[in-house]
Amino acid sequence: MKTILIMRHGEAQALQAQDHLRELTQRGRQQADHVGQWLAQRFNPQGLLVSPYVRAQQTAECVKEHCRGFTLEQTCDDIIPSANAKTAVDYLQALTEVHTEIDTWLVVAHMPIVSYMVAEFCPEQMPIFATCGVAHIDYDPATMRARWQALYSPK
């Protein structure tokens, strides 16, 4: 059984013409720091997929201050806001098969793809994520079945 953690980035600057360049606000950095501590205490993920957008990269950097066990880190264009969730989930499933040594995966991305990814794994679920919210899913690569566990939203 693998653990899949799907996380939305922290609070970001207001919308602008170049969405991919939006940075985290101070509150967003605090959220990411808090969730990084929480993830380190409960999961200590080893695999990391991060959107190339600045706010997702900054969120991942804050998380990495606390979670130091990453053995694989990738920036992934398949998890930008407008990407196809099925493609993203197929890629993540392939990674779990190739990297059998990794038990816990963290994906740092955006709305709406984070909700759609959860729905791909667990069709009965499609949560709306708060900033820095984390969905916890158990995934069995042998059967390709997933089980919804919880949605964590920082305070």
> Helical stretch count?
4
**Spatial strand order of the main sheet:** 3-2-4-1-5-6
Percent of residues in helices comes to: 25-40%
> How many strand elements?
6
The ordered H/E elements are EHEHEHEHEE
- Main beta sheet, described? 6 strands, mixed
Strand content: 15-25%
Radius of gyration: 14 Å
Separation, N- and C-terminal Cα atoms:
29 Å
Structural class: alpha/beta
Low-pLDDT ranges: none
- Overall 3D form: globular
Q: If you average the pLDDT, what whole number results?
A: 96
Protein architecture, described:
It is a single chain. The protein is α/β, with parallel strands linked by helices and 155 residues long. The chain contains four helices and six strands; from the N terminus they run βαβαβαβαββ. It has a six-stranded mixed beta sheet. Strand 5 and strand 6 form a beta hairpin. Helix 1 (26-42) crosses helix 2 and helix 3 (85-98) packs across helix 4. It is globular and about 40 Å long.
What descriptive keywords fit this protein?
6 strands; 23% strand; six-stranded mixed β-sheet; alpha/beta; 155 residues; globular; 33% helix
Topology, please?
Elements: E1 2-8, H1 26-42, E2 47-50, H2 54-64, E3 72-75, H3 85-98, E4 104-109, H4 113-121, E5 134-140, E6 145-152
At a glance:
With 155 residues, the chain is an alpha/beta fold. Helices cover 33% and strands 23% of the residues. It has a six-stranded mixed sheet.
